[in-house]
Amino acid sequence: xxxxxxxxxxxxxxxxxxxxxxxxxxxxxxxxxxxxxxxxxxxxxxxxxxxxxxxxxxxxxxxxxxxxxxxxxxxxxxxxxxxxxxxxxxxxxxxxxxxxxxxxxxxxxxxxxxxxxxxxxxxxxxxxxxxxxxxxxxxxxxxxxxxxxxxxxxxxxxxxxxxxxxxxxxxxxxxxxxxxxxxxxxxxxxxxxxxxxxxxxxxxxxxxxxxxxxxxxxxxxxxxxxxxxxxxxxxxxxxxxxxxxxxxxxxxxxxxxxxxxxxxxxxxxxxxxxxxxxxxxxxxxxxxxxxxxxxxxxxxxxxxxxxxxxxxxxxxxxxxxxxxxxxxxxxxxxxxxxxxxxxxxxxxxxxx
Length: 352
What we know:
Strand content: 5-15%
Number of strands: 12
CATH topology of the domain at 172-305 and 338-344: Rossmann fold
Oligomer: single chain
Shape: elongated
Strand order of the largest sheet: 2-1-3-4-5-11
CATH superfamily of the domain at 172-305 and 338-344: Response regulator
CATH class of the domain at 172-305 and 338-344: Alpha Beta
CATH architecture of the domain at 172-305 and 338-344: 3-Layer(aba) Sandwich
């Protein structure tokens, strides 16, 4: 079946070709009702709004795409003593994808910003690549459904939202449960506070669920919500969360569990400014295993996830899908490992 064209969209929506073009190039110049009609027709047809879209059905670009929001954290870059220390979660995935893409003879095109909205992100990538990977919740499900009719898509992280797409995630629930168990069983801590992200962050929510399960198993109160929710999981937000928890009435938590390392590192700085000792007064732990966690003092206890492998596996799945479009969809769960360091009170600098 040939790929739908702008002519098909125009005919189905009952407008001119010029109007369809304006919807994608200058949407504010088209009345809302007309724009919605055109976009609905495009979704139903599986039209990819790109000048290169027709070529997707007949030729290879030799390029794989990655859709990723921009997770830049200026505070992390300021703390780093070298470039490797400043590498964050998204950087590690990109490195893994680049390595695997070169191995398979592909280049990598990255759309790493949500400026202009998620639809703009899809348009930047989908018409220029043979296949692409996208982080969960970065692009609306209905848009991914449309794109996946024309080219292979693999979903990274989060729960599996579209059954017919290949999917990779890490064991977020298991990792956070094991980390909380370690604090309770090995360090005899009872007052634990979890700092999470927004509810639409699937990884952060899976980690909170693992935390809740560890509390349930240990006979601790099981919270319905994180002690603090943040909108952006950066060092600055982690510092603010730590300050907020210190200033609350009642007994101070014995341990702060952050949904990622960046927030935990920000908390370490905030606690030092307040004269709160880590781990003597409060333990601090994170999740991800970014290089910066080894450098801060005290070194950060965390759950290390295989971020580069996540990128490599994504490319391998895309390449296999390009060679065999009709094979059954694959869903992978990659393991994680607990890394015990000084910020929780462990004597060993880095042991799993």
